[in-house]
Amino acid sequence: MVLGIESSCDETGAGIVQDGRLLAHVVASSMDEHARFGGVVPEIAARAHLQAFNPVVREALDRAGLRLGQIDAVAVTTGPGLSGALQVGLAGAKTLAYAAGVPLYGVHHLAGHVAADTLDHGPLPRPSVVLIVSGGHTSLLLVRDLVREPILHLGDTLDDAAGECFDKVARILGLPYPGGPAIDRAARDGDPRAVAFPRPLTRPGDDPYAFSFSGLKTAAARWVEDHRARGAQVPVADGAAALQEAVADVLTRKALAACAAHGVRTLIVVGGVAANSRVRALAERRCASAGVELRVPPMTLCTDNGAMIAAVGDLLVRSGAEPAPLDVSIDPSAPLEYAALTPLARTA
Ligand code: ATP
Ligand code: MG
Ligand code: FE
Quick one: which residues bind Fe cation (predicted)? Predict the structure, then answer.
């Protein structure tokens, strides 16, 4: 039974996983406290983690009907993320591991996003192409064994992440924070063909797996400006639908190109943007016509949570990985090479 702790950004999450099965998970978010600043304020996030930590862990244990003494290991996000936020989660996790006398595992946040999918759909087929699309990352990965082998990066974003693009364009359109869900909602009443937003890095000769989203933000800003200059009302729903279409188109096109090039039959889409309805729908359609199996975790496991960290911890325990020493520290900018951010597990 592994207790997983997540605190890299604005969600405090605790989840409990046993042999690949999710027993319970609880998430508290400080999102509302950041809304009026238009983005996560690190100091506020860290303080919110401090307040939420004990209640969230307690509730996860209660829901699973467990006492701390019944936990076999604690897994915690040690990076990447906001330093202060990560520190709170790690300090809490160390305390719990020490109190319970169980091993501690340091987990890479993005490996957690990948593992989230296993909780509903079972072990990852090997190899799988994984598209991680979140507030801070947009990466195409080739994953063989998540905890035993290094993760191969096929491509990343050269500038903004897809979620960041949603958040920034939402602000430009006057939609509330966080922008991703707001754009998704607004787009329901819009026409995706109303605006011809660019499809960055999709021309022949472009890096097939690299992404760029900052140009979309600029295009959206210019489109809004054009309306304002003419004294015309901005058709927000159309803008949202067209933006969402452009992002979903580029993401799914490149992900399927990666599957084809590597002969991979499974595409896994994870991270907060995997909650986007158009990304899901287009991925489904394109995977179906390419004969590729699509796996997307349920919405609640797409955004940051503790269950996904527990899922990695559970895999690490079962693979016999070496736990982290109790003086392990955070790594706010950890590159995604290995799922476990512990020195010995790296060589396992
Ligand atoms: P990272 O995981 O890269 O460190 P993060 O923790 O901020 O970043 P997540 O919590 O995984 O990222 O996802 C949050 C992002 O997902 C935000 O940018 C948010 O706007 C976006 N998002 C959430 N729901 C949707 C949706 N329905 N459509 C589009 N984007 C969405
Ligand atoms: Mg978040
Ligand atoms: Fe995340």
Answer: 109, 113, 304
- Across the range 20-29, mean pLDDT stands at 97
User: Do 263 and 323 fall within a single domain?
Assistant: no
Is residue 120 one of the residues assigned to a domain? no
Asked if residue 314 and residue 261 are part of one domain, the reply reads no
Q: For residue 243, what is the domain's CATH number?
A: 3.30.420.40
* Ligand 1 site, CB within 6 A: 8-9, 81, 109, 134-137, 163, 166-167, 178-181, 184, 271-273, 275-276, 303-304
Dig out the tokens for 294 from the structure. Answer: 């699509």
Total count of domains within the chain = 2
Q: How confident is the model at residue 340 (pLDDT cuts 50, 70, 90)?
A: confident
Domain that holds residue 12: 2-115+302-342
How far apart CA 348 and CA 338 sit, in angstroms, is 10
Interface TM-score (ipTM) > 0.95: yes
67 C-alpha to ligand 1 centroid (Å)? 32
Report which DSSP code applies to 211.
Answer: B
What pTM value is reported for the model? Answer: 0.92
- Distance (angstroms) between ligand 1 centre and the Cα of 17 equals 23
319 occurs within a structural domain: yes
Average pLDDT of the residues of the chain: 95
285, 160: one domain: yes
98 and 166 fall within a common domain: no
103: in domain: yes
pLDDT value at 348 more than 70: no
234 within 8 A of 242, measured Cβ to Cβ: no
For residue 26, report the distance from its CA to the centre of ligand 3, in Å.
15
> Is the predicted pLDDT of residue 320 greater than 50, yes or no?
yes
Distance CA 128, CA 270 (A): 12
The residue contributing the CA closest to ligand 1 atom 28 is 276
Q: Which residues of 143-168 are buried (b: 16+ CB within 10 A; e: fewer)?
A: beebbbeebeebbbbeebbbbbbbbb
Best of 303, 305, 330 for a ligand 1 pocket test (most atoms within 8 Å of beta carbon): 303
Q: What is the mean predicted confidence (pLDDT) over 112-135?
A: 95
> How confident is the model over 307-316, as a mean pLDDT?
98
Cα 132 to ligand 3 centroid, rounded to whole Å: 9
Contact criterion met (CB below 8 Å) for 6 and 304: yes
Co-location of 291 and 328 in the same domain: no
The verdict on 58 and 170 lying in the same domain is no
